[in-house]
Design a protein that fits this description.
Layout lengths: L8 H14 L15 H21 L6 E3 L4 H8 L5 H18 L4 E7 L3 H12 L5 E8 L2 E7 H13 L4 E4 L12 H12 L9 E3 L6 E2 L2 H10 L7 H10 L4 E4 L5 H9 L4 E4 H14 L2
Parallel strand pairs: 1-6, 8-9
Antiparallel strand pairs: 2-4, 2-5, 3-4, 6-7
Helix pairs in contact: 1-2, 1-4, 2-3, 2-4, 2-11, 4-7, 5-6, 7-8
Amino acid sequence: MFARIASDPAAFAAFDEAQAVLGYDIRTRDDVVSLASTVNVQLALLVAGVASARILEQLGAAPEVVAGHSVGGFAAAVTAGSMAFADALRAVQERACAMGRLFPSGYGMGVVAGLPERSVREIVHETSRGGAAVYIANVNAPTQCVIAGQNAALELALDAAKAAGARRADRLDVAVPSHCPLLAPVQARLADALAQIEIRDPRITYVGSVGPRLIRDARGLREDLAAGVAHEVRWHDASTMLVEMGVNTFVEVIPGHVLTDLARAAFPRVRAIALDDVGAQSAASLARRA
């Protein structure tokens, strides 16, 4: 996860700050075994997002707007100047630990691609009628949804999606059923944790994931970060809002290029750049020319 940025001097401060809070070097947990842990994954995503943004800013490509998918909202909040990085680390650690404790086994998530949201919602509804717990968790594109719930219910819903003609209907390597009502206790715990943290009004435009909506004040941001864990992430709606606002360049921070691929497919006229694909120098150069 950190291969692209581990040796960049602009990222060193982020790694050092994280070590001071966590008590260990997050770079030592950047392997397949370590990243099987929900806690390690979420903390690594936060550190990678913040470090990536700092590198881009140092290269003259500071963002005008930020949005985060799931735990990425915390990195977006730090980048927007609303949260101290140390506070975000503590909040995400609490979030991830609570999720792991609540669902140590028996639950997960799956992706359905090639069916419209309406069809996936009907499948989820029918599956749930028998008492099985399964929900839509993410709407990432007009024909890509992620579902979450009990293992048996997930399998039934994925099988139904395949029968309905889905191009893909597979389990994801995720142990916790995120972004659904099952995580209401985690939302409550996270809200309590965030209430103890100083959160400021965003310095730049922040697009939340619950709604989605423009968030202009600390109260709205605090509510969005807490609620996001137990509500659908409507990423396509958030991306559409960004385009309608006039955003013409998306830069996806470390790791991966999933959101970049989604943006390219949905918005052909928008430039979408994954830092993982082109490196920080090229990403910053392309962003500066936007």
